[in-house]
């Protein structure tokens, strides 16, 4: 008995989704796309908003509206902005949605930095960095060496997620302490005092991911 197969074009396709509850991506308007490109190029050039506004001969308020896609700037204004950024006008009209940031760091090649409040024996390796977006995400691989000392007074904006990789620590957040070993996770509001209270088993490694709103510059 022969079987009739449906043409490939008639097969239904199911869109795959992740377990996240994040909403769908919204396509940017032309004004939003231009503004996002200008902000991206400004930050890439390490310019403040005041620097770019001054160089383009426009007010900081107008630049802010342009970068946020709130107005349709004239062609002459865009040309002035491009001259200040030292880029061709055509670069602003590149499709911004196709240029989403991505960061890749090979094993052992994270940038060792001195984070605000870093203490002796606490080593921070930054594992990635994105230039754009309303949120800043800072992923660190933290190592507490044999000479590390407890410190429970870190305080800053945002939310932090700690995932323990090795060693054991009593980690304090506010008025509570949590004993953590490999595989344990702690997520908390960073505005409360926090940090390792008792270093039970050294050396220790854990991932620390800090998320906060990007400040306008």
Would you mind describing this structure in some detail?
This protein is of the alpha+beta class and 217 residues long. It folds into two domains: 30-92, 434 Repressor (Amino-terminal Domain) (Orthogonal Bundle); 111-213, Jelly Rolls. It contains four helices and seven strands. Strands 1, 2, 3, 4, 5, 6 and 7 form a seven-stranded antiparallel beta sheet that branches. The longest helix is centred in the N-terminal third of the chain and has 15 residues, at 30-44. 17% of the residues are buried.
Name the descriptors.
217 residues; alpha+beta; 434 Repressor (Amino-terminal Domain); Jelly Rolls; 2 domains; 7-stranded antiparallel sheet; 7 strands; 19% helix; elongated; Helix-turn-helix transcriptional regulator; DNA binding; RmlC-like_jellyroll
Low-pLDDT stretches are: 9-13
CATH architecture name of the largest domain = Sandwich
Distance between the termini: 72 Å
Roughly what is the average pLDDT, rounded to an integer? 83
Helical amount among residues, as a percent range? 10-25%
SSE-based structural type: alpha+beta
Helix and strand succession? Answer: HHHHEEEEEEE
Task: Tell me the number of structural domains.
Answer: 2
| Largest sheet report | 7 strands, antiparallel
Number of beta-strand segments? 7
Tell me the name of the CATH homologous superfamily of the largest domain: Jelly Rolls
Globally, the shape reads: elongated
Tell me, what is the CATH class of the largest domain? Mainly Beta
Radius of gyration: 24 Å
- The percent range for strand residues is 25-35%
GO cellular component, one term: cytosol
Protein name: Helix-turn-helix transcriptional regulator
GO molecular function, one term: DNA-binding transcription factor activity
Keywords: DNA-binding
